[in-house]
Amino acid sequence: MSRLRAAVPAGFTVLLLAAASALLTQAHASADTASTQDTSYARAADASNLAEIQMAKIALQRTRSQSVRQLATMILSDHKTAEMQLQQVASTAGITLTGKPSPQQAQQAGLLHSVPVGSFDVTYLQIQVGDHQTAIQNTKAEIATGSDAAVVQYARGALPVLQKHLHMSTKAMVGVAAVEATAPATNENPAPSNVVSSGPEAFGAKSSGSDDTGWLIGLAVVAALGIVAVLLWFRHTVGSNEHI
What we know:
Layout: H1 2-32, H2 36-62, H3 66-93, H4 103-114, H5 117-145, H6 149-182, H7 209-243
Helix pairs in contact: 2-3, 2-4, 2-5, 3-6, 5-6
């Protein structure tokens, strides 16, 4: 009887431990698979933060525009802060981040390294506008359909910052594009090579000053021949009259 009494508490303890273990396992599983939406958004935001940090550093090295420099400085600071916050949120939610930009974002960074200096600012701003439009769309989707409270809260805080970046990028692009449109073409700011000329060059002719000189010489020769013809006619007419 005493053995039976001792066995009951022991068995009950085992059941409690098993139940607790099951609950912990379920909790970890729900955290690791918190939500496909949460995981997808957090990883995309991680890649975006890292890409923006990288491209902002390139911009600070290559830009010639004060407005672009100010924008890149702001983006660098804001996305560094956002990335630190996101890493904490992801750790709490059990989400493993990729820790690197996407292949497309890596290509964008490569383009910014290689594009001519005269085209850099417009290229950088075009990338910023497109990337922030995508980031805003993803962030709104997380706010609307995300299930993890911490990830959704991160998205709510990120949205106004991303919207500010988009507004500043659009404004800077308009100003830089206007400056580039009025700037003379140089080796650092070449004219677009894909523009088809509708002038003499389109037909293989040259539009240099020597062409104008040749045209004037030709006109002078024609005029001289005309004068000679008139003189010959006049002498012929006078000679005819004298014979009469």
